[in-house]
Specification:
With 134 residues, this protein is α+β, with helices and mostly antiparallel strands. The mean pLDDT is 91. It has a single domain, classed as Nucleoside Triphosphate Pyrophosphohydrolase (Alpha-Beta Complex), CATH 3.90.79.10. The strands form 2 sheets. A 4-stranded mixed sheet has the order 5-1-7-6, with helices on both faces. Strands 2, 3, 4 and 8 form a 4-stranded antiparallel sheet that branches. The termini are far apart. It has 2 helices and 8 strands; from the N terminus they run βββββαβββα. The radius of gyration is 14 Å and the shape is globular.
């Protein structure tokens, strides 16, 4: 994808698990890919590390302080207008999330993921997560 002349965007997402459930958030109606579900996170800004970007996005969108752990996987996805690289990190929250800059949030079992519509890159992370389950 690199060198294709297309815009390339890097985003980071958090895999947050508690009691066998995963935190997913619904995009705002005014966002690109509106009202689709995703692992929480955001775009990496110029000069930010992945961990800095993910901490900032979680504080901004969910009002939580978080500990960013190891990178679990990285996927690339081609959308119509741009290419996206998404790195998924294991994250532990230090407080309860709120819907500050997301439409909704849910704690979902992985077996319930089929009830939610995810954007292409997020669906690839969901598929990878499910493939790793026993």
């Amino acid at each position: 994808m690199e060198g294709s002349g297309r815009p390339c965007i890097r985003v980071v997402s958090a895999e947050i698990a508690e009691d066998g459930r995963f935190l997913i958030t619904q995009r705002l109606p005014t966002a690109s890919l509106p009202l689709l579900w995703e692992f929480p996170g955001g775009r990496v800004r110029e000069g930010e590390s992945d961990a800095q970007a993910l901490s900032r996005a979680l504080l901004d969108r969910l009002g939580v302080q978080a500990r960013v752990g190891e990178r679990l996987l990285e996927v690339r996805h081609r959308y119509a207008e741009y290419d996206l690289t998404m790195a998924v990190y294991e994250v532990t929250l230090r407080s309860s999330p709120r819907t500050l800059r997301v439409h909704a949030l849910a704690w979902a079992l992985s077996s319930d993921f089929s009830r939610y519509t995810f954007p292409g890159a997020d669906q690839r992370t969901v598929d990878a997560l499910l493939a790793d389950e026993p």
